[in-house]
Fold this sequence. Notes:
heterodimer, A: alpha/beta, Rossmann fold, Alpha-Beta Plaits, 2 domains, six-stranded mixed sheet, 14 strands, globular, B: mainly alpha, 13 helices
Amino acid sequence: MIETDQLTKRYPGGARGIEEVTLTVERGEVFGFLGPNGAGKTTTIRTLLGFLRPTSGSARLFGLDSVRDAVAAHALLGCLLGEFRFDDELTGEQVLRLFARLRGVEDLSPARELAERFEADLGRPLRELSRGNRQKIGLIQALFHRPPLLILDEPTSGLDPLMQEEFLAAIRERRAEGATVFLSSHNLAEVERACDRVGIIRDGRLAAVEPVRVLTERSFRHVTFTFGEPVEPAAFAALPGVSQLEADGRRVKFRLSGHADPVIKEAARHRVLDVEIEHPTLEEAFLAYYGDGGYGDGGALA
Amino acid sequence: MSGTASHAIPAAGGRRRAPRAAAFRALAAHTVRRRRRAPLAWGLPLGALSFVTAAAYPSIARSNAYDELLKNYPEALKKAFGVSDTALHTAAGYLAIEVFNLIAPLVVGVFMVRAASAALAGAEERGTLDALMSSPVSRRTVALAQFAGSAVTALAICVLVGGLTWIATLTFGVDLAAARAAAAGLALWPLALFSGGLALVVSALTHRGGVSTAVGAGVLVAMYFVEALGNLSKAIEPLKPLSAFHYYGSAIENGIEWPSFVGLCAAGVLLALAAARVFERRDVFA
């Protein structure tokens, strides 16, 4: 469905693009594309869509060349790139009617159904809508023609959690109908819930492609205990899944991967004043996963 | 809800794409609709200026004040602006000097420069181009349909200016044929097309709408001066054929010169086609 081969984009100004990204997304798959800001997610997507011309390598959608056959490819896909922006004096209805016409669709009822579902206001000009409500118009614009491929770059930015959930449900439905979804995000939770596989891009290079399960199973938490009295940190350091331990008298701080049970049992032997469990940022999670040192083997980072 | 099956939408795997001409029309119509107030915003003030100027002419013709004034003007200035000593003896000559030689073509030209700059570079800068370009519409259509839509709006401005001039001549008994008033408005259009085509090339090259507007308007003004100063300076004179104003003429005095009219329109369209080719080959940034 999506195939890139050694896809490279370098910007004239020397800003980092992407280097030799080779990637295949299968039909019917929901593929998550993860990476910190500036890693090359947007560059990859814009090259897939033919907005950017590859410096070298190639990208194909449905077997169609991203640059030469862009129009034919776009006929088969819906997309939403970041925050949805369009001529903001238009109402949602006018925007959707234009995009329907450009696709040869006169019937707006599928779009209206989606609007009802997302509680989108089609009657007001975009400029009067909140960011989240504008984003809903963008989502409808991407979905209404039931494209077999959806390309979404940070689509849920500005949506409240309830709407994010509704949106993810819509994606799952599209997938159940056989559509393929390419979803870029820096929101790990969103990707975890929606995707089958994830590709991780770092510094313009594809660092890894894994089933989403693998990434999340290897994920870790930051744990900080504050005890009523000083404790012996070695007892914690010896527990399975504990690494990067720092102790400061009554405070013990470490990374925990895997089950929390041994740690909780050990802590329960003391008087616990406070406990903080923080999930890592996505960046930390995959830096840990693909970084130089192991963190899950009981050893500290080199 | 009756379920999606009842709607005329394809199942996953279906392809949705308007025929090229339909997409072109839809986008051109969109361009006209979103500037539906522009004929009033641009044409009304300009038309009003022409209207007031025409209305004032009969009383000016009765007095000799302007004749006196004109006699004292430096010869070079009169030559540069194509003003003869008898220019003020006709309503057409007066309107040409006051409205149609300089202000009107610049206003209509700047309208098209702004529209063409907004179509590509400005839209890219604002981030509104992405949604359009991810539709099954070629870049060529994105560029040319917006150009065509803007040209229609420009024509409406020209018609409004010509129309208001004509109404003034009727109302105030100005000695100017209706056909000349209409010609004065219509003759602005080729210059608008040319300005738009020129700015569309810049808009296709650059990524910033402001740059495109500035360059387009700058070139337009420079062309005006080439034509004006070409009347004075032997050094500049050979450059006159490069200026669009060289072909603009003075339709209110002499009627429309059709070869120039068609030529200038064709040059505008050719520039727009060139812009489309440039746009097809460049990156569009986020």
